[in-house]
């Protein structure tokens, strides 16, 4: 590129980025940058905003806030945005060591809650009578306590859950996302869209208040 031609900067904003409380948000935090090698480091270190306490833990940075700062750094720059035009910055506190007691409490609540849900479902559909009738059809004899069939059925439920959720502790059977991961992703996407809409509404209201009547 000749020295007379205006440099071109390609910016691809990320969707959501975490940043530690007290740090200044730079362009390198929120965007992927492609430019001339001489400008890459200054662009990555370009300060955008310093989150304040009144900003909360979520901060919206719009492309219209970024462009003037890049133009101030590189006069005559040509900016080529790629993808979305905003990014959510999540201000997080310094990570704390996970609590073993809290983990055990949540594990116990999930374990007994799931067990009670399954038992209540079985009681509603009279599963015991269904199993007795099934064994009777298979063997020709009525057994009021088909423990072998019930044990196999119980192991089958557990095995089916492992296959369905594609997860056993930290091991996954393949690279496909689990249903829980998909639901969490969709939930996070909905939250982000809602926050972005609310932030744009707040920014518009602030601009309207500043306009002369």
Backbone structural class: alpha/beta
Please tell me how large the radius of gyration is.
28 Å
The H/E string reads: EEEHEHEEHEEHHHH
Largest sheet: 3 strands, mixed
- Categorize the overall geometry: elongated
Q: Beta-strand level of the residues, as a percent range?
A: 15-25%
The counted number of beta strands is: 8
Strands side by side in the biggest sheet: 4-1-7
* Number of separate helices: 7
Distance between the termini: 49 Å
Q: Helical percent range?
A: 40-55%
Unreliable stretches, pLDDT < 50, 5 or more residues?
Answer: none
If you average the pLDDT, what whole number results?
82
Walk me through the structure.
With 213 residues, this protein is of the alpha/beta class. It is 53% helix and 17% strand. The protein is built from seven helices and eight strands. It has helices at residues 27-30, 37-44, 63-73, 100-124, 127-139, 147-165, 179-210, and strands at residues 8-13, 16-20, 25-26, 31-34, 47-49, 58-62, 78-82, 86-92. Strands 4-1-7 form a three-stranded mixed β-sheet. A three-stranded mixed β-sheet has the order 2-8-6. Strands 3-5 form a two-stranded antiparallel sheet. The longest helix has 32 residues, at 179-210. It is elongated, with a radius of gyration of 28 Å. The two termini are 49 Å apart. The mean pLDDT is 82. The chain crosses the membrane at residues 100-121, 147-169. Keywords: Membrane, Transmembrane, Transmembrane helix. Residues 8-93 form the Stage V sporulation protein AA domain. This is Stage V sporulation protein AA. It comes from Paenibacillus cookii.
């Amino acid at each position: 590129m000749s020295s007379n031609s205006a440099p071109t900067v390609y910016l691809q904003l990320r969707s959501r980025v975490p940043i530690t409380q007290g740090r200044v948000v730079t362009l390198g935090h929120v965007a992927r940058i492609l430019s001339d090698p001489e400008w890459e480091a200054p662009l990555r270190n370009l300060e955008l905003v310093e989150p304040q306490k009144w900003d909360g833990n979520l901060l919206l940075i719009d492309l219209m806030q970024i462009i003037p700062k890049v133009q101030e750094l590189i006069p005559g720059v040509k900016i080529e945005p790629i993808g979305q035009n905003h990014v959510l910055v999540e201000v997080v506190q310094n990570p704390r060591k996970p609590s073993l007691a809290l983990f055990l409490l949540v594990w116990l609540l999930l374990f007994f809650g799931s067990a009670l849900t399954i038992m209540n479902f079985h009681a509603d559909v009279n599963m015991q009578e269904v199993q007795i009738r099934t064994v009777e059809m298979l063997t020709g004899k009525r057994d009021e306590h088909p423990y072998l069939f019930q044990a196999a059925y119980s192991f089958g439920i557990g095995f089916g859950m492992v296959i369905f959720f594609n997860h056993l502790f930290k091991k996954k059977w393949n690279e496909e996302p689990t249903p829980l991961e998909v639901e969490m992703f969709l939930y996070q996407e909905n939250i982000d869209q809602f926050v972005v809409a609310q932030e744009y509404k707040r920014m518009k209201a602030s601009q309207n208040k500043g306009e002369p009547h």
